[in-house]
Amino acid sequence: MKDAFGLPQSLLVLGGTSEIALATARRLIARRTRTVWLAGRPSPALDQAAEHLRGLGAQVHTVPFDALDPASHEETLGKVFAEGDIDMVLLAFGTLGDQATDERDPQAAVRVAQTNYTGAVSAGLVCAAALQNQGHGSLVVLSSVAAERARRANFIYGSSKAGLDTFTQGLGDALYGTGVHVMVVRPGFVRTRMTARLPEAPLATTPEAVATAIELGLRRRSETVWVPGALRVVMTVLRHLPRGVFRRLPV
User: Fold this and answer.
1) In this predicted model, what pLDDT tens digit does every residue of 43-59 receive, in sequence order?
2) Which of 65, 98, 120, 236 has the least C-beta neighbours within 10 A?
3) Residues 239 and 224 sit within 8 Å (Cβ to Cβ)
4) Pick from 176, 218, 158: which is nearest to 3 by CA?
5) Which residues contact 48 (CB under 8 A, 6 or more apart)?
């Protein structure tokens, strides 16, 4: 069960090698979390992540999970919940893709959409049902500021995150009053391996800063978290700019 501050004792990470997810796990282990499940494709990186978290004092398990195989989600994730209550699920998997390449290769674009949206819908619904059955818990979903408005530079990725963001908001409404807390996290540019090849955007942040914001959001039972917080104002302005003006912006 969660403590008086809303922090979890048990954590299930979907996307077990995500730098943001691992930064969040480290922060929560330092506070309260004692059991962590890392779900992801079997790999040395997943094993190394598990060993690292064990070194911080947590009991860590790995479970094979593939976002692109929705048919397996109910069975795979069901086994985790069968082991005991999960206080928090962090849905952190996703792929950035390559906009220029993906525009020329529809199958590559579809893979981005299937990973970021279809896979997340499947896993999100499975976890939401399990959390509702146990009567408590938080589902935290990593969205992106890219979900707020389509940009020429990354509209394939942005559209998949827009779908995920809308889905998560609706799921939160559906679960309101059930004891399950749903929180959307909208980071801006985060300095990770995934973004290392890209020019850094204004208001860039770090996995550790996102983890800090997630902890604060859990304590406050927030429904939406922006990282950094200033992006909320920035995106409100950009979202309402006339399309002709927005097209001319270097974004």
Assistant:
1) 999 999 999 999 999 99
2) 236
3) no
4) 218
5) none
